[in-house]
Amino acid sequence: MIQEQEKPLLDVRNLKTYFHTENGVVPSVDGVSFHINKGEVIAIVGESGCGKSVTSYSVMGLVGQPGKIEGGEILFEEKDLTKLSNGQMRTLRGNEISMIFQEPLTSLNPLFTVGFQISEVIMLHEKVSKKIAKQKTVEMINKVGIPNASKIYYSFPHQLSGGMRQRIMIAIALACNPKLLIADEPTTALDVTIQAQILQLMKDLRQELDTSILLITHDLGVVAEMVDRVIVMYAGQVVEEGNVFKLFENPKHPYTKGLMDSTPKIHERKEELYSIKGTVPTPMNMPTGCRFYPRCEFAMEKCKEKAPELLEVKQGYHVRCWLHEEGEVNLDEEFNRKPATT
Amino acid sequence: MSTNSAMEPGTSMEEQFEVSKGINPWIRWFKLLLRSKTGTTGFIIVLTVCITAIFAPQIAPYDPDAMNPANMNAPPVWLEGGTSAHILGTDSLGRDMLSRVIYGSQVSLLIGVFSVIVAGSIGLVLGILAGYYGRWIDNLLMRVVDAFLAVPNILLLLVILGIFGSNLITLILVLGVTNWVIYARLVRGEVLTLKERDFIRAARSIGTNDRTIMFKHILPNVFSSFIVISTLSVATTLIIEASLSFLGLGIQPPTISWGYMLSTGRDYLATSWWLATFPGLAITITVLGIIFLGDWLRDVLDPRSQGRRP
Amino acid sequence: MGRYLIRRVLQVIPVLLIISFIVFALVYMAGDPVSLMLPEEASQEEIDSLREALGLNDPLHVQYGVYIINALQGDFGKSYRYNQDALSIVLERLPQTLELAIVSMIFATIIAIPLGIWSASKQNSYIDLIATGASVLGKAMPNFWLGIMLILLLSVNLAIFPVSGRGTLMHIVLPAITLGTAIAAEMTRLIRSNMIEIMQQDYVRTAKSKGQKDSIVTYRHAFKNCLIPVVTIMALQTSGLIGGALVTEVVFAWPGMGQLLVQAVNARDMAIVQACVFVIAVAVILMNLLADIIYRMIDPRIKYE
């Protein structure tokens, strides 16, 4: 546990990112805290609209209008990113922290060669000549596993396949050797076979470059594949956080359990996949008390009245649920013990 | 489980929307209109112009053709020498400018509305035919459209009106005949995409005949973009009509039109600036109102724009 | 590219044929030109022989055939007023009209690009409000009225610019502003709405995530993409631009095709009218072709199809 003593690379504390829309304030991210250590890979998991993407954009400083970071700290190597000026933030972006996105086709500019789009970021941050930037770009294209790099340099995005485009995006993101890579659903838009290749590539490069990765996904399969620690978000809050093996083996929050039960597993035959009843609450009708209780199978009277805090149930393992108030509970056992009234 | 329905997740805007659907559609549209400042402005302007045109004899303080040689080129009331008897002054024959501007709205409106009806009907029918049947009809129509697009509207109008002379009816017809291409193009494009939609295929597969498909199934779906284009093209027609009058080929006196007033006023620019200014202002404000209204309609009706739908 | 060009040029042929047909029909309906060409005291024999010489006694389809063959050779007949080849008269005036159109276009571009981008990047600010307001106003104002108002203010009252005519640099300022305002209004609106849409695209977000400056993100990554729809739509408006130029010329007595045409129409000088229509149609078609080529140069996705 010596590693734990070390200062984390990224430490997000009580982050609040709100959107000021015509219909009122939408608290997309509502008091989220987590950290990433050096070289660690963590994932933020949740349904769409839970605030996981907004969290990552907050770290990048790319929350656009009408969104705004309303509170909290984002400490990156102990600098608070929320207090940096635009210009200071720009020197970090693409350089120390970089990001890849879900849709590789639309994320690349259709009017520039991929080579230019990679060398652009190198020239920007490393202040090297065009020639050296080009050389480095070709190296990067090689590194992300595209053969014939010097020819690909002159290709336009529309001439490449989806997998190749995502490799180019990864090349752009890793071109300046960032300390943190944020990957927002990097494989969602790709074919299944390509997905595996891209994940493998990210794993390999992470080893090679010692980059920490923050993976944003709703795909638990991807999480199991490459992550050290998982953060589960629901309605703008962290509901569970912990080591990936412990979490998969024995989820503590009813929502996490629901998510896992609704994912098909290869070696289990089921008549019907489980689905969590109800829908994600909109900010306009956020339940009082626990935000998940209207959909929760374990809901108690208390849940309706009082919102639970994030509790540490074990060393480095947090859950936001009243069930675990007086010590850890196993959800499967709890479920069986419950009288079948509903 | 819960008894408090306000807390039930999923009661969202959609349901409130369902509720509001029950009210009289006119009121619903009106509420929607009030939400847009420019839409409301446009609506008020257009309504005012319509009322002015319809009730011109009641509103105008003078007979617009009554000359008064004793009071020629009188300036508007706020200038030195102006009288409150003629708020906007008088023209070179001593006719009251305000009355003439009021009467001018009649012709503009008449031409704007009717030429758009002519153009719209031609374009709608040809567009649907071309889009639906495709092949050589479509090919031919599109080349004709290209030909019309290659010749500036005003040029074609000049030539035709130069040959046939212009009165109200020819002007309306000619404006309609030169203007149909935008509708034909729009409608054809819409029909081409609609044709591939499932409900049309379904109608065809159960043996509905072409005419029913075109006029019962396709037409209503083209209608909203058609209305938007029509509204906006009333605006351009007004400007074109004024330009023609200015070039001496529009409505001829004694019919009063803003364009003609403007072009005669130009000769007195050095001495009586108001003669050219007020008719131009009237055109600009009217067109502005129509554009506002048309843009609002587009926001509301056109699913491709991001505006709210009723 | 070469094949595409050939196909496009081939498409022009039926378009020109249709135009020629419409013009022929109009001229035919305009009536007998002979009475205009001869002095009033001309004898019946003189009239008959001129009719024969002009081929007016031939059947209609023969007349059309002859007309097409002549038109292909650039022969639209003689202007009875100038007693000169109509096409050469029109072509003499073309440079002046082009001069006005091009200067106006440059004026419009200089105003519209920064204004459009600026108001898109500051959506709903005062700048945006003023820019969109001005562009709607520019669209709502009849071109010639704006011209007259400019003359009133800047020529008659302040005596800065000459009222009309062509000659010095000062002469072109007011006509160019008049014509340019209408173009700038449309262009600003187009650039604004396209920029707003493009600034929300994923690749703009990528550019920002690289740490690129806002100005570079806007001009390099977004604006280049914005040019594609803007160039296309502006090219489609060429015919409107020329139409506007015709009217503007009359306002400022600018010695271009517009003035010539209006005079020709009033004098029923159909040879000049026909030549004008064709020259303008060809100019519009060429502009559209040019825009197509530019657009293919900007957008690499098209070139290889």
Short account of what is shown:
By secondary structure, chain B is mainly α. Helix content of chain B is 70%, strand content 0%. Chain B has one domain (13-61, 90-308): Orthogonal Bundle (MetI-like fold), CATH 1.10.3720.10.
Written account of the structure:
- Chain A: Residues 10-260 form the ABC transporter domain.
- Chain A: Keywords: ATP-binding, Cell membrane, Membrane, Nucleotide-binding, Transport.
- The complex is a heterotrimer of chains A (342), B (310) and C (305).
- Chain A is α/β, with parallel strands linked by helices and 342 residues long.
- Chain A has 14 helices and twelve strands.
- The longest helix of chain A has 18 residues, at 192-209.
- The mean pLDDT of chain A is 83.
- Chain B has one domain: MetI-like (MetI-like fold, Orthogonal Bundle).
- In chain B, α5 runs parallel beside α8 (168-195), α5 (97-133) runs parallel beside α12 (274-301) and α11 (258-265) runs antiparallel to α12.
- Chain C has two domains: 2-85, no CATH class; 88-298, MetI-like (MetI-like fold, Orthogonal Bundle), CATH 1.10.3720.
- Chain C has helices at residues 2-30, 34-37, 44-54, 60-72, 86-121, 126-140, 143-157, 169-198, 202-209, 214-236, 238-252, 257-267, 270-298, 300-303; strands at residues 78-79, 84-85.
- In chain C, α6 (126-140) crosses α8 (169-198) and α12 (257-267) runs antiparallel to α13.
- The relative contact order of chain C is 0.13.
- The mean pLDDT of chain C is 82.
- Chains in contact: A-B, A-C, B-C.
- The interface between B and C is large, with 42 and 48 residues.
Shape of chain C: flat
Rounded to an integer, what's the Rg of chain C over CA atoms?
24 Å
Compute the number of strand runs of chain C.
2
So what's the oligomer here?
heterotrimer
- Protein chains sharing the most extensive interface: B-C, 42 and 48 residues
How many helices of chain C? The count is 14
Main β-sheet, spatial strand arrangement of chain C:
1-2
| Rg result of chain A | 21 Å
Return the CATH topology of the largest domain in chain C.
Answer: MetI-like fold
Number of separate helices of chain A? 14
* Average pLDDT for all residues of chain C: 82
What is the string of helix and strand elements of chain A? HEEEHEEHEHHHHHEHEHEEHHHEEH
Q: Structurally, how many domains make up the residues of chain C?
A: 2
